[in-house]
Structures are given as C-alpha cells and as structure tokens.
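pinned: reference chain
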Amino acid sequence: MDDVFIGSEALRQGKLSRYQLRAGFRAIYPDVYLAAGATSSLRARSEAAWLWSGRRGVLAGLAAAALHGSDWIGDDEAVELIWRNPHPPAGVLTRNQRVESDEVTRVDGLPVTTSARTAFDLSRQLPIGDAVGRLDALMRATPFSVEDVLLLAKRHPGARGLRRLRSALPLVDSGAASPKETWLRLVLIDAGLPTPDTQIPVVAQFRTVAVLDMGWERFKVAVEYDGDQHRSSRRQYVRDMRRLKALEACGWIVARVIAEDPPDDVVRWAREALRRRGYRDTYTTYTTRR
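pinned: its structure tokens
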C-alpha cells in the first residue's frame, strides 16, 4: 500500500483492516488514502483526484503539464480535473468541459489531456505572460503543434479565452529554460524590439564557446538572465567571467540581467546595443502583459 488508493476498496478486498487503515494511512481526499508519512506530491494528488472521481475524470491544466514533464510546477498547485462535479475537495479544481477521445492520452497509467489540449487549456485560462511561460515549459518537455492547438480552437468555438489563446500562441518558444527567461523575452518583445532568437550557439575555432539564452545573432547582441548561482559559488563566478570574455572576443555584446533590474533599463540597454550594431527602430515604452 505504498501508493494512493481507495480506502473502501482496500477494506472490501481484505488488503487492510479498519484499524490498519486508521493507524497507517491518511485520507487526502474523501475515501482516498496515502501512507501517513508519505509526501503529498502533485503526482500523488493527481492520481488521488482521479480515484476520487471514480476513475472517470481526466487530468488537465498544470497537473497534466506536470505529468507531461513540464518543469517549474510546484507540488502545491491545485489538481485540475475535467469532470462534472461542482463540489470538489480542497486542492482539486473541476471543470465541466467537453473533451473528445482524441484529446486524451495516458501518462503513467492516468488519463491526461494531450499536450495540444493541455496547451489549449493553459493558454485560455491564464494571463498571457503566465500562459506563455507555461507553454514554453510544456513545449520544451513535450513538443506540441501550434496548428493542432488552433484546430482545437475551431473544434471548441464557444470556449472562453480564445482571444487570449491566439495572442499567446505566437509567443511560445521552447528555448526558454526558465520562467525568468520567458519573462525577459516578453519584456523585449513588448518594447517593440525584434523577437530574439533563443539558445544561440557561439562557435569559435570549431569549439562551442557558449549557448546564449537569447539575442540577435545578426547583430551579435545577447541578453541573459542571471540567477543566484553566480553569487553563491566562486567557481561559477570565475567560469562566468571567462565565458563573458570569450564571447566578447567573438564580437558579442552581452547584457546580464538580474531580478532587481527594472524592465525599462533592460530595454534601454538592449535598444542602445542594437543601435550601435546598426539596428534602427521606433522607440516603444515597455508595458507589462496582463
């Protein structure tokens, strides 16, 4: 009994006594149990929610994305379930929506919306900036066809959020390795700069010097998001400095952005660097996506 299970089934099948059930397990949803000391991971809660639905629901949203392999999804996220029940337990979100058989697949034995249907749902339900970040991660984990998502929009013309979906899909880029990289890319695009390429390899003398987060290869201008690892590790800091010098030797201008940098400053730096390399544009003020 290491996995989640339906308590009444275990009793009926003689796998546990009532005493054993009370003493060694805890109910995480009505009649769905987990070992008392086990962690309620999103994976475990997803299976538990499906069992709670009588094995009739379909896992969707972020729970589906996580099962497809998307990163950056916390264990405390609500489990989204397509199933007709308006009174789910805490931690479960039910949606009374139509889902066709070809929009459902199996992952680890669980019924889950396909990657295209998962993208269809996330792009409609989240603010555009958040949606693009989630879709970037999903595309990186399990590539889906944007055309297939648009076909789903035609199949479900009455679904809410289709305008948001059509705004988010063209911005998806699997090259984003983190939500902060997605945010940074959208900051640059929202300011009217050309859409940057992502994961740009820089090769010198038949050796890969670096793979840049994003930038404009034509102008040899790059922008990278710096996490906290360079602050906590001297070795990483030295490696970063050597990498930066090697990129400069290859003719690249590289900006390293940290969380405290105001978006307007980031855009101003990128625009000035591009102009120094011959790019011409009309100035646009940065605006935050909603």
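why pinned: The first strand starts at residue 5 and ends at 6. The mean pLDDT is 94.
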